[in-house]
Amino acid sequence: MSKTKIIDHKSIAELFADDFLIGAAVSPLTIQKQRDLLTHHFNSITAENEMKFERVHPEENEYTFEKADQIVEFAKNNNLGVRGHTLIWHNQTTDWIFQNQDGSEISRQQLLERMQTHIKTVMQRYKGQIYAWDVVNEAISDKENEFLRPSKWLEIVGDDFIAEAFRLAHAVEPNAALFYNDYNEVIPEKRDKIYHLVQSLLNDGVPIHGIGLQGHWNIQTPEIDWIRAAIEKYASLGLELHITELDLSVFTHDDKRTDLKEPTEEMLALQAKRYKDIFSLFKEYRNYITSVTFWGGADDYTWLDNFPVRGRKNWPFLFDQYHQPKRSYWELADLCMQQGRGGN
Ligand code: HAH
User: Structure pTM?
Assistant: First the structure.
């Protein structure tokens, strides 16, 4: 099949313009390599890595904002919204923040002060330019009979590190929409824990405005009914919902093959059907879901290459490695046209 120009295809952001924002995770490299695709098809971006703690704050007195700045600048020049990811997380966070010079553990009070300095410096730098922040990422445990994930934050500050992070973020930018973000978010046990956490934050008057459903799913699971039940449950808290890191791996949980050079026809067909079912569900809940972000732009780059199976490429998006629309894209275009949208 011959290559078509990106602008020949209806923008997915335009297709869903009445429903929610459509975003992509980006890096300093992809804002160059995927420039035309990103500016045509998306109206929101997230820095995949460049706003994470280890990237912007590698040492106590050193902030490295150059790459994050490039991404925010790209958004500004192209009229794209920015989601901020992420302020407080157990992962990709440099150990200095938890330690004294001699390597010993700092006190709760000291860590709260460092937390405040970090949140303040990062949020103030991009004040007014970020429409929503993932304030806390992945604080809930995946284990049965364990509520919060063991982490340095939990160990040193205690249970209220989450509430503290939200209060500090709100004090810096009272108008920013503040989100709790997590994965395995539609698995009933974890869903109920996330619900419980957010409900208790709300009961305590903590300023939290939304729940981020990461959406790292595959061509078979989780089933649509689980996604629906999770959306219903979270929406019942009266908060905004964002789908923050959507991708549909072409590999089911038990498929560990590493020999595929390209996705099979069957994978692409299943993926297309899943995208259609998932977005048709999202459209049903458009009053709650205000933003849907893919964790990348096209199949030339995804964090799922080599993860969790080494030596294996993945093809999780709507556009292939040459930025051409896949069957998944056409299913979504169809879905929106059927419902009477889709003018250029
Ligand atoms: C997400 N974690 C993170 O929020 C994001 O920052 C990162 O770029 C990719 C995925 C999901 C996750 C993980 O990192 C490890 C195991 C399971 C899920």
Answer: 0.97
Can you tell me the distance from the alpha carbon of 66 to that of 86, in angstroms, rounded to the nearest whole number?
17
Whether 138 sits among the annotated catalytic residues: the reply is: yes
Report residues of the chain scoring pLDDT below 70: 1-2, 340-344
146: left (phi over 0), alpha (psi -120 to 50) or beta: beta
Phi-psi region of 222 (alpha: psi -120 to 50; beta: other; left: phi over 0): beta
By the 8 A CB rule, do 105 and 156 touch? yes
CA distance 15 to 307: 31
- Evaluate whether 207 touches 167 at the Cβ level (below 8 Å): yes
Atom of ligand 1 nearest to the CA of 49: 8
Write down the residue that tokens 């972000």 correspond to: 293
Query: Is-contact 182 147, C-beta < 8 A?
Result: no
Q: Residue 244 in contact with residue 85, Cβ under 8 Å?
A: yes
Pick from 296, 305, 291: nearest CA to 323: 296
- The pLDDT, as a whole number, for residue 8 is 84
42: its two tokens: 């998306």
Q: Which of 194, 213, 216, when mutated, tests ligand 1's pocket best, judged by the most ligand atoms within 8 Å of its CB?
A: 216
From 48, 138, 173, 185, active-site residue: 138
Element (H, E) at 109: helix 108-125
What would the pLDDT profile of 279-333 be if each residue is shown by its tens digit? 999 999 999 999 999 999 999 999 999 999 999 999 999 999 999 999 999 999 9
Q: pLDDT, tens digit, for every residue of 77-113?
A: 999 999 999 999 999 999 999 999 999 999 999 999 9
